[in-house]
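General statements about sequence and structure are easier to judge against a single worked case. For one protein, we set the task of working out the structure tokens from the amino acid sequence alone. The sequence in question and its structure tokens are set out directly beneath this paragraph.
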Amino acid sequence: MPAGHTNYAACYATGLLVARRALEIVGLSDAISGVEDVTGEEFHVEEEDNERRPFKCILDVGLIRTISGSRVFAMLKGAVDGGLHVPHSVSKFPGYKEPEEKGADYEYDAAAHLERIMGNHVQEYMEMLQEEDPERYKVAFSAFIENDIEPDGLEDMYKECHSKIRENPTFEKKAASGITNKRTGNTITTSNGSSYTRAVKRSCAQRKDRVKQKLATALAKMGGVVAEEEDEEEEE
């Protein structure tokens, strides 16, 4: 996925990657496959018939506002479809509709959720900008243009991403760049010969002393101004 790393579809793919990588680490990737063909339907891995117990996780959203359709729930859906047991309901997913009467069953449109997972909302926005504001389209989707990604190719891109995640979710550490830094005092010298001075945070005592110096300088200036005014009055 060369572009569009912050939308709902990308967050779903991130959750899927987390799930497949986690299950591979604990040795459950072969026993638990999750949802191999994304449908958007409600899915709970603990309800499936598996030889081993699923790997249970608890969703911690931190300070993120838990509004319906939030991207954090896209990651949740990706992790659940990937095979992790995360207790949840569909009430925060796109396509969910509250029951009109108390005690009635809720409605959940899995197709609407699937459209978000596949980036259809991004596709529609791209097509709209292409027609109505081409210049803004070039700025907003420059990364897509650089990688020759057209609006009608988004769904295929995300499907390919999902298949590649399932094919090989293993983290591959990048080779060392060979750049080493040498520090002399506050000066950092890199292996390619360039250097820069690292800013050092002042201590509490240093900050207080700096305030005293500024006050003394300000008082000295005020004293000089007062003295000049008094000399002018004496001359008059």
